[in-house]
Design a protein that fits this description.
binds oxalic acid; Phosphoenolpyruvate Carboxykinase, domain 3; alpha/beta; nine-stranded mixed β-sheet; Phosphoenolpyruvate Carboxykinase, domain 1; 15 helices; binds manganese (II) ion; 27% helix
Length: 584
């Protein structure tokens, strides 16, 4: 393979800075992957799991202080502070480089530097983009082979072009004091040091495919979103595609792989992607989405044969588990797997598990598995053109206020619903869990520029679309006074998707309310469910006091963007407030 000179030059520069003992260019082959695995099993980075029941599966235990994304150590580095807005940490590129290059200096001494070329997006797609990650972690290189199209395929796509996104990563000393995830969108560069955790270290995922790509997408007129992509098949066999944004660890993988409880009636879900959507407007003015990834980096706890049997069938081979517990027969185990913790269980830190010490698996423990193994993978998941999107769905955990489902009046109102979305925090990032924060479009930790400009970009895209997708808001997570979920969720969410599908195709009963179009209480098909009386009325009603409270939070949030906030969003805000105040 002819070496790309711009790439070679950057690799040489990084090598002079980090001073590795060896440099290995990854070709992406299976032999190479197996070699990485052997090395890691040899040095204890990986533990071989039961090869009879989990062929080619391994367990990695990370440093206990390195188990989730660290939003407080994640920076967007641009010339002007205002360009990153109030939702990102900012540092001037010069200061960032000075501070962090000291940490990179010699950080790979005694280690191997892996050069990992990778392609985000299907082979042959005009929408795919090349990244190259330099890392001193074989675990990262192996995960990148699962999560992306890695190695020669990416170099071939690149050819002699300089158009690749470089990302330099080193484990450093894994100390949170010397951990920085730095993005330089103006030069399309990532520097990450001090963490081996997925979202901080697999630079193709959050750093490139969301933070840098969102910045590039605004410049180039497309969208990079924290969204799953599914195809919903109806009884006639027609498939309608939808993209849905949920914050981290809020069930995106489960929804993407849903086994419909209405399969007998002919409703079935096909998986295109579970985390990221790159969406472009085609020549006919239709929005199309590709999944830039090639694997799933899913949350293990809660994944079981009843909640997500498709994931269970996807992750029983060729999978790397991180921070799950291990049974005495060397099988992975986690809370919510559907089996009792066996005697002799080893916890995620490698000690004998005692229930009094808390969870056996870390709440943010993960599996990394190839998407092609997914039994419900769509036959169009690698379509170079992507799939046409007819509906966009916002979802988040809200135990109160937000109804089961509602439809926006139009695109602008839908952008308002997304931009003002509140969400309860989860274990996917360090910090308190269960606190409500604004998480616009589920992109709060992932938007690489000022979110005021991001909302403008959403409005602009809407204007360019011939037939914009309809926009919906869902909430599977409403709880009753005893703290129990009202809605069964999982495979029964198909009942909500069925209403969305009907709306997309011009049917489905809806009432116009102050907050949006809501299904009437009898409109969602609940046949066969045992719900407490009054559940559907509760889930399809408008909580005036709750929404008015929320309006105050939205006001503060919108206010933080100053004049970068598009006036259309304030118009929507004021109109909603008036509609709510007029309610009895
Ligand atoms: C993820 C996340 O890993 O959102 O997908 O944190
Ligand atoms: Mn995610």
């Amino acid at each position: 393979m002819v070496r790309n000179s711009a790439l070679q030059q950057w690799v040489d520069e990084c090598s002079r800075l980090t001073k590795p003992d060896r440099v290995h260019w990854c070709d992406g082959s299976e032999e190479e992957y197996n070699k990485f695995i052997q090395i890691m099993v040899g040095d204890g980075t990986l533990i071989e799991l039961n090869q009879k029941t989990y062929p080619n599966c391994y367990l990695h235990r990370s440093h206990p202080s390195d188990v989730a994304r660290t939003e407080n150590l994640t920076f967007i580095c641009t010339e002007k502070k205002d360009d990153v807005g109030p939702t990102n940490n900012w540092m001037h590129p010069k200061e960032a480089k000075e501070r962090v290059s000291k940490l990179f200096d010699g950080s790979m001494k005694g280690r191997t530097m892996y050069v990992v070329p990778y392609l985000m997006g299907p082979v042959g797609s005009p929408y795919s983009k090349v990244g190259v990650e330099i890392t001193d972690s074989a675990y990262v290189a192996a995960n990148m082979r699962i999560m992306t199209r890695m190695g020669n395929v990416a170099l071939e796509h690149l050819g002699s072009s300089e158009n690749f996104v470089p990302g330099l990563h080193s484990l450093g000393d894994l100390s949170p004091e010397r951990r920085f995830i730095m993005h330089f969108p103006e030069e399309k560069l990532v520097w990450s040091i001090g963490s081996g955790y997925g979202g901080n270290a697999l630079l193709g995922k959050k750093c490139f495919a969301l933070r840098l790509a969102s910045y590039m997408a605004r410049q180039e007129g497309w969208m990079a979103e924290h969204m799953l992509i599914i195809g919903l098949e109806d009884p006639s066999g027609k498939v309608t595609y939808m993209a849905a944004a949920f914050p981290s660890a809020s069930g995106k993988t489960n929804l993407a792989m849903m086994v419909s409880t209405m399969a007998e009636q002919g409703y079935k879900v096909w998986t295109v992607g579970d985390d990221i959507a790159w969406m472009h407007i085609d020549e006919e003015g239709q929005l199309h989405a590709i999944n830039p990834e090639a694997g799933f980096f899913g949350v293990a706890p809660g994944t079981s044969n009843s909640t997500n049997p498709i994931a269970i069938d996807t992750i029983n081979r060729n999978t790397i588990f991180t921070n799950v517990a291990m049974t005495p027969s060397k099988e992975p185990w986690w809370e919510g797997m559907g089996t009792e913790p066996p005697h002799g269980l080893i916890d995620w830190q490698g000690g004998k598990w005692e229930s009094a010490r808390g969870n056996a698996a870390h709440p943010n423990s993960r599996f990394t598995a190839p998407a092609k193994q997914c039994p419900t993978i769509s036959k169009h998941w690698e379509d170079p053109k992507g799939v046409p999107i007819s509906a966009i769905i916002w979802g988040s955990r809200r135990s109160t206020v937000v109804p089961l489902v509602m439809q926006a009046f139009n695109w602008q109102h839908g952008v308002f619903l997304g931009s003002s979305m509140g969400a309860e925090t989860t274990a996917a990032a360090t910090g308190a869990v269960g606190v409500v924060r604004r998480d616009p479009m589920a992109m709060l930790p992932f938007c690489g520029y000022n979110m005021g400009d991001y909302f403008c970009h959403w409005l602009d895209i809407g204007k360019k679309l011939k037939k914009p997708p309809l926009i919906f808001r869902v909430n599977w997570f409403r709880k009753d006074k005893e703290g129990k979920f009202y809605w069964p969720g999982y495979g029964d969410n198909i009942r909500v998707l069925k209403w969305i599908l009907a709306r997309v195709h011009g049917g489905g009963k809806a009432q116009e309310t102050a907050i949006g179009y809501l299904p009437t209480a009898d409109e969602i098909d609940v046949e066969g469910l045992t719900l407490k009386p009054g559940t559907m009325e509760e889930l399809t009603s408008v909580d005036k006091a709750g929404w008015l409270n929320t309006m105050n939070e939205i006001h503060t949030f919108y206010g933080s963007f100053g004049n970068r906030m598009p006036s259309e969003m304030w118009d929507e805000y004021n109109q909603l407030k008036q509609r709510l105040e007029r309610l009895p």
